[in-house]
Amino acid sequence: MDMSVVAVGREDDSPVEEPMRVAVLADRLGYREVWAGEGPTWDSFVLATAIGAATEQVALTAGPVPVNVRDPLTVVRGAASAAAVTGRPVGVALGTSSKRVVEGVHGRPRTRPATTLEESAAAVRALLDSVPGEPVVPGSGFLRRLPPPGGMLTVAAFGERAVAAAVGHADRMLLDLVSPGQVRMLRARMLAAAEKAGRTPPRLAAWLPAAVDPEPESLTQILRSVVGYLPVPGYSDMFVDAGFAEVVELAVKGADRDTLLQALPPEAAGTVALVGDAATVRARVDAYAEAGLDEIALVPATAGDPAGERTLTALKPE
């Protein structure tokens, strides 16, 4: 199982520079790739560039960036700029994000998300494959001067149309906060889409929260990342099957995040995360591998474990 690390700014009281600390530690421990997450606090391309300047060897992926917020040229230009400054390959990840982020934070309409994802993935793929001297975009009159950023194109997917977009254009398909059962289902969906399209399926990766020997505050931090998924179709069924139907019902009825956090028991974290002692977490990693996952992108809990050092050290590449 390949392991990468997610350095993302949490929208809580975590230090704003925490993603840098996580990335520097991941580089020192020998992880091959760091994801520079996009959010209300950090611009992913600026963060990727800063990480590249502060580290020695990790490859970089920026995103997922919301396709209703950034146009394809902006995405590829950002990655190419970061690659030129850092001297490292920089990949890009695309996703539809949520209405809460796209409309509530950016003030942009989240219309036709699946169609926009497909169109954006196709355009980004073409731009990533272009070379210096070619037009930036056909008919623009501007020629490309920077070389391609050199990293993978990743598409975050869950629904059938998003999976088809990933299969059609991406090197890697990304899942977020999934159980081994969901991995098995989504891998089957990906393979079916690839067979229908006559294409080689992309690699399958998942962002998974992780906490080895977690402190209580570590579990609370993970649960905060879970509550937003409780009312989402597909995810809600997973939590119901795991025995948390009452909390899912609260979420569907519109309970706020603090109410859901109080109602969600600590053991719920284990549904979609790597939590427990080292042996338990390793067994959980094996379960994801058996379900068909190619890569785990660790989102280390940092509450009670600064920079996720305990977790990242326990799971570091051998």
UniProtKB/TrEMBL annotation:
InterPro entries: F420-G6PD/mer, F420_Rv3093c, Luciferase-like_dom, Luciferase-like_sf
Any one Gene Ontology molecular-function term assigned to this protein's record: oxidoreductase activity
Residues annotated as domain Luciferase-like: 12-294
EC number: 1.-.-.-
Assigned keywords, A-Z: Oxidoreductase
Family annotation (Pfam families): Bac_luciferase (PF00296)
Keyword Oxidoreductase appears in the UniProt entry: yes
Domain of life: Bacteria
UniProt keyword annotation of Oxidoreductase present: yes
Full protein name: LLM class F420-dependent oxidoreductase
